[in-house]
Every structure is written in C-alpha cells, then in structure tokens.
C-alpha cells in the first residue's frame, strides 16, 4: 500500500492526520463492540422466555432448561476454533459472519415455537455466533487497544450490556406483546441487520492474529492459568444460570401472572449490576487477581442466598440473591480476562480466552443439572445449590494451594 503524501511541516501539521486515524480507530472500536452487543443480545434473549414456554407451550422444566443450554452445544466448538478463524481470515470477516448467524438463530427459534427440534437448531446457531463474537471480538479490540486492561474490560461490558438489554426487552415483549414467541426475535433480527452493516464497513479490524503452530506448541500456557483461572471459569456464567433460570420458578406462584416480566427484571438486575461492577473495576492488570477472588466470593454468597430463597420461596430474597450473583459474574469475568491478557504467551491469547469462555459456559448447564437431579433423584433445589457452592469453594482453594506448593518447590 502506498504511503500517503504529506505537505511540508510548516503548512500541514500532523494533528489532523492523527485525528483522522483516531476517528477511524474509534469507529472501528464502536463497530466491534456493537457486533459483540447484538450477538450477546441473541444469546440471552431466550432466557426470560423460559416461563412462557413452560406455561403457554407446555414444555417441561427439563425441556426448557435443555433449550437454554442448547446454544452451548454450538458455542463450545465455536469458542475453541474461533481464534483459528481470526488467524486465517483476520478479525473482521468472522465478525461479519457471526452477526447473520445470530439473526438466523432468532428466525429458527421464532419459526419453531411449537417444534423443539427447530428451536434447538436455532439456539445452536445463536451459540456459534456468540462464540465467534466473544473470541474474535476480544482479539479485535485487543489489537486496537494501546492501554493494558482496556480491551478485556470493553469486551466484558459489550457482552454484559447485550445480555442485559436483550433479556430485558425479550421479557417485556413476552409479557405484553401481541406475539410473544415472535416479536422478541424479530426485534433482534432488525438489530443484527444494523450490526452487520457497521462491522462490514469497518476497515481496520482486519489484522490476522499470530498463527505459527510450532510456536504455539513450544509455548506452554502459564501454570497460574490452569490453577487459578480455569477453576474460576465455570462459575462465571454459572452465576447467571442460577440468577435467571433457577431462581424465577421458585417464586412463580407468587407473581400473579407476571412471571415472564419478573424473569426479565432478574436478568436486567443481575446483568445490570454486573455491568456496573465491570465499569467500576480497577483498570490496572495488577488488580485482576483480587477482582477474580472477590467475584468468586460473591458467587458463593449469592448461591447460598439462592439456596435459602429456594427453601423459603421469598421473592425479596430471590432478588437479593440474583443481585449478588450478577456482581459476582461481572467481577469474575473481568478478572479472568485480564489474567489472560496479562500472562498470555505470544500467539496464545485467543486460545486462553476461548478456554475461559468455553468452561464459563459450561456453568449454564447448572440449571439443567439441577432440574435433572430433582426429576431423577428427588434432590431439592436447596440441596443442589449448597453442593454447587461447596464445589466452587473446593476447586478454587485447591487450585490456589497447588499453585503455592509448586511455586515453593521452584523457589527451593
């Protein structure tokens, strides 16, 4: 590419050229965040509709939670392979593909409101789109960022805001719209069209990531990643699964027909507080460890509160538990992403980020697992949630202890 010609210094200062480049960078940054926002919207808009599908379509608790988890079936392979797409095609082209895939998922779910198989396919398509958006969008922001910690924070906030607004809008439309099984998905399709135009017009988010296979094979991932970040990852979205898939049915009988709206409110509340927590989280990489640890502590506290809410069927305690879980989600996600950014060897950031999201989304299997334990073994929700809290404490303490032991052995 030819270099642009410049006039002599005395007649053409460099500030305007820098301003143009800065403006293009800002527009590209916004386009990437918008693409991540709309695919996150598509991923979470189904959640507040669970109650509607149970009551109006006659789906069982296990069936709706399986549909909630269905997009993880498409999401996990996408998360594991998305960094390879970025290495081969750059970061813009996969994002251009992700947004229409998310719209296709909404179309299939809307068309298959009486057909669980078609809905399952739609949820899988949504999952593939979300996986690409998460990993490739994060890599694109990282390539544009000049400030440490800014890219993972923007990535987390774009996703969280999409999760929150999508769920809130879908819950409201499911409660009051004339076609509750169609209108939320039509709205998302319109937003996807706008997001696709924005990302297709972006011009600088095209850099390929490093893809030297031999270099990746030679560079192992940090031990701290395996012993601190990996044990924390499953509880990131596990917190949200508990907040707006396990908690709403507990108090459905107390809501006098406003169960869909209440589910949307819980989504907005938990994700909104998670967004605020991410916004207020410290900006320096040194704070990633405490941020992750505080988030995990809040996850355990929120899960214990959810267990008490399940035993008492208290609406207010459900609200409190969802709030604490939302903040825990927000801080744990930011802490894990910043740990990846801070410690990733050359060419491994996409791999590490993909694994965090992959394990994180396994946490969305908690509602399905809890429903299965209840239907198959008559294990109550309270008992299951206590087990979840205990598992989170045990795995993360074990990881920290093992890391401490290995560091002492190396020092000795």
Automatic annotation (TrEMBL):
Stored SUPFAM superfamilies: MFS general substrate transporter (SSF103473)
UniProt keyword annotations, A-Z: Cell membrane, Membrane, Transmembrane, Transmembrane helix, Transport
Subcellular location: Cell membrane
Record has Cell membrane as a keyword: yes
Single GO MF descriptor: transmembrane transporter activity
Main location class: membrane
Xref: Pfam families: MFS_1 (PF07690)
Gene Ontology terms: cellular component: plasma membrane
Transmembrane parts of this sequence: 29-50, 62-82, 94-112, 124-144, 156-179, 185-203, 224-246, 261-281, 293-310, 316-337, 358-379, 385-405
Phosphoprotein is among the record's keywords: no
UniProt cross-references to InterPro entries, sorted A to Z: MFS, MFS_trans_sf, MFS_Transporters
Superkingdom, taxonomy of origin: Bacteria
Protein name listed in UniProt: MFS transporter
Biological source species: Rhodococcus oxybenzonivorans
Phylogenetic placement of the source organism: Bacteria, Bacillati, Actinomycetota, Actinomycetes, Mycobacteriales
